[in-house]
Design a protein that fits this description.
Mean pLDDT: 86
Distance between the termini: 70 Å
Order of helices and strands: HEHEEEHHEHHEE
Shape: globular
Helix content: 40-55%
Largest sheet: 5 strands, mixed
Low-confidence stretches: 3-27
Length: 159
Amino acid sequence: MSSKFVIYIVLTSLLFISCNSDDDTPIDETDVTDSVLIEINKLRTTGCKCGTDDMPAVPALVSNPLLTKTAVSYANDMNARNYFSHISPEGTSPIQRASVVGYTGKYVGEVIARNYSTSAEVVLGWKNSEDHCKAMMSNTYVEMGAGKSRKIWVANLGK
């Protein structure tokens, strides 16, 4: 066997190994609950203005792993399938998606955003959207989870 043939086999093998892709690999699933929770709780514990309404301080939210799982999964789904909506293409709502992973709370709200780089930026964006701001400031919610996939952010708020 010639050395050129052996080199060819080795290089060809390396080519196939480097080109192999795993279609089940998440695009960029990230649990961002801790950093988003800090930013949202800054607003909640001091109060803020949502549109023209003054929102009083409300208790801080706590992290919930099921809401985090739902948020990360939904951010990844929107990114992978190239859509942006609170309702999935199949028609599922935030509370339905949370229920599927075992969340038993009576209320689930959702704030979504895209094209932000940091948790501080995305929470400021939500604060500047009256409906998203009011959701973050609602005393109905007591816990949350957040996820992002590339530039899509999702926070699920629950009780």
